[in-house]
Every structure is written in C-alpha cells, then in structure tokens.
C-alpha cells in the first residue's frame, strides 16, 4: 500500500549557543586558571573558588562572557531583560574522568568555556532529551535517527569556544580517553530586570 503524503514540522526547539572568545583569553590567564586550588568533585575536580569571574585578573574573560549572554538574551530568546553570571568555577577532568549527568538548578542559562588546549578526543558534552524517569523507552532504530526522535545530541568542544544552553537540560561529559588533563570553566546565569505586567498584578522586579 502506498504511503500517503504527510508533513512533519517542529513545534519547539532547544538552542545551544556557540561563539569563539579566544581573543579575550591571555596565556597569563590560562596559567592562573590551571593553577587554582582544586577539590574532588565525584570523578573530576572543581575549583575551591566558585566565583572566579569576580577576580580582576579574569576581567576580559568575564566581559566576553557577559557580551555573549547579552546576545543570547537579545538574539536567541528575544527578551529585553539581562542575564548576569551567578557562580563560576573551573573544572579538571583527569585521564579517565568524565562528568556525571546533571542539570543546573537556580539558573536559567548555563555555560561552558574551553579556555585551554583540548585533548584529542576532547571529551564531548552530551545533552539528553529526557531529564526524568521514563516509563517507556522508545528509541529509534539505526538509520532512523532524526531531530524529532533522537535521545541525545553531542557537542564537540574546541579551544576558545564558549557554549551557552538552557540550565534545565540534562547533560554529561564523556570520560577523558587521553593522558592529558581536560580543562574547562562552567558558570550559571540568572535574569535581572522586570518580568510580568503591572496592570495584571504579575510584575516582578529582579
């Protein structure tokens, strides 16, 4: 029996935003970031300082990140409000270490910055479609994966690249398969400005 013609159209999409800010990162900043005091964080390591963008030595990086957040709010989300970085920290994935699946609470947009040379392979960031228990697992067969049914999407990080994405998205980092350290910065951002409507008594100033 012949298949009837049909249309398939997207209802909603989830963005990830990528830009190169290599020009805002100096060798001295790379050395400073690599030398920060670290503590254990399950399988990888996290900086003891969880507000690194407040350091004056990292001002050019923080400014480039803020410019990217401004673009994300204006050009991707189309909103008049501004984002600001809440917490920011460095991560090191030693050989064999990845990052467990997680999302970021108390945040709207999160980001990753790959400020140093990446190992090869670089340890991809994997975004998962579902973030909660699934009673039925309906995965596509080989060769039938598309934007509507894929259960995950992979982002291959590059040195100097800044990624922004919705904080609610579940994601993890593949294990580091090399003998090199894998360095990155992560951060969260929240919104400031007025939300809602005065006359609808839903106004909120943040």
TrEMBL record:
It comes from the Bacteria. InterPro entries: CHP02466. Pfam families: 2OG-FeII_Oxy_5. This is Fe2OG dioxygenase domain-containing protein. It comes from Alteriqipengyuania halimionae.
């Amino acid at each position: 029996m012949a298949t009837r013609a049909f249309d398939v159209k997207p209802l909603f999409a989830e963005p990830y935003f990528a830009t190169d800010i290599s020009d805002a990162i100096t060798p001295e900043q790379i050395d400073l970031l690599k030398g920060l005091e670290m503590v254990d964080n399950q399988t990888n390591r996290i900086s003891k300082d969880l507000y690194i963008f407040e350091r004056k030595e990292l001002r050019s990086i923080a400014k480039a990140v803020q410019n990217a957040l401004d673009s994300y709010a204006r050009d991707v989300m189309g909103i008049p409000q501004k984002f600001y970085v809440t917490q920011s920290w460095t991560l090191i994935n030693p050989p064999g270490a990845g990052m467990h699946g997680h999302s970021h609470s108390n945040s709207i947009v999160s980001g990753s910055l790959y400020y140093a040379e990446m190992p090869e392979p670089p340890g991809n960031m994997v975004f998962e479609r579902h973030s909660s228990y699934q009673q039925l697992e309906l995965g596509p067969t080989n060769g039938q994966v598309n934007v509507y049914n894929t259960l995950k999407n992979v982002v291959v990080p590059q040195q100097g690249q800044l990624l922004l994405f919705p904080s609610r998205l579940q994601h993890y980092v593949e294990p580091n398969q090399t003998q090199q350290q894998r360095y990155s910065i992560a951060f969260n951002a929240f919104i400031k400005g007025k939300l809602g409507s005065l006359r609808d008594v839903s106004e909120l100033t943040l």
